[in-house]
Amino acid sequence: MGAGMIRVAIVEDHPVFRKGLMQVVEGAPGLELAGVARSVDEFTTLRLGDGVIVLLDLQLQGSRLEGPDAVAHLVAGGHQVLVVSASEHPTDVVQAIGAGARGYLSKQAEETEILGAIQAVSQGRPYVSATLAGYLLQAPIPITAREREILELVANGETDQDIAEQLTISVRTVHSHLDRIRDKTGSRRRADLTRFAIERGIIPRRSKEG
């Protein structure tokens, strides 16, 4: 494997779509196709080690693990999961992300979007396609522009001190904004705030070191 190569694996039971994803990955500079499987169990036997980005279909026919359970199993194995699914139902998106998926794409996504999502996940940023993110706004919670900025930074893993420095405000002010966001969303933990940001299509900005 070349230095800096992004290792990508595919778990997809449909042969035609599986072949299409293989061609996308193999034809992209900077990506290495680390393995291909028709089920999560088959993927596990490949023993690829951790740190692989797994393109996962949620609905695997005849598989012991599918849906959020498949996502959670792969995440527990040290992998980053990017769901590529025929389902565009908001519940499926939320459950997959709740199980630890770093991104969610429809199978209608173009090659350029798939590659962009892989790059985003490899850089530690979540990715949800704009169309699917729009579906998640069925019950919007009013978030101010400043609160949105703070949510972006929280979802990017920044500390309260980092947020204060980047937005040129005090840490106390950051805490006040976070308290209001928690009151609005009902989310107390940072992980839950991150999930809320992803579900609402608030895509984190790159960190200052990125």
Task: Considering the chains and any ligands shown, give keywords for the structure.
single chain, 210 residues, alpha/beta, Rossmann fold, Arc Repressor Mutant, subunit A, 2 domains, six-stranded parallel sheet, 10 helices, 6 strands, disordered C terminus
Write the layout of secondary structure elements.
Blueprint: E1 6-11, H1 15-26, E2 31-37, H2 40-46, E3 53-56, H3 67-76, E4 80-85, H4 90-98, E5 103-106, H5 111-122, E6 127-128, H6 130-135, H7 145-155, H8 160-167, H9 171-185, H10 190-199
Parallel strand pairs: 1-2, 1-3, 3-4, 4-5, 5-6
Helix pairs in contact: 3-4, 7-9, 7-10, 8-9
Task: Kindly describe this structure.
- This protein is α/β, with parallel strands linked by helices.
- The protein folds into 2 domains: 130 residues, 3-Layer(aba) Sandwich (Rossmann fold); 55 residues, Winged helix-like DNA-binding domain superfamily/Winged helix DNA-binding domain (Arc Repressor Mutant, subunit A, Orthogonal Bundle), CATH 1.10.10.10.
- Helices cover 48% and strands 14% of the residues.
- It has 10 helices and 6 strands; from the N terminus they run βαβαβαβαβαβααααα.
- Strands 2-1-3-4-5-6 form a 6-stranded parallel sheet, sandwiched between helices.
- Helix 5 links the parallel strand 5 and strand 6.
- Helix 7 packs across helix 9.
- The longest helix is centred in the C-terminal third of the chain and has 15 residues.
- The radius of gyration is 18 Å and the shape is elongated.
- The C terminus is likely disordered.
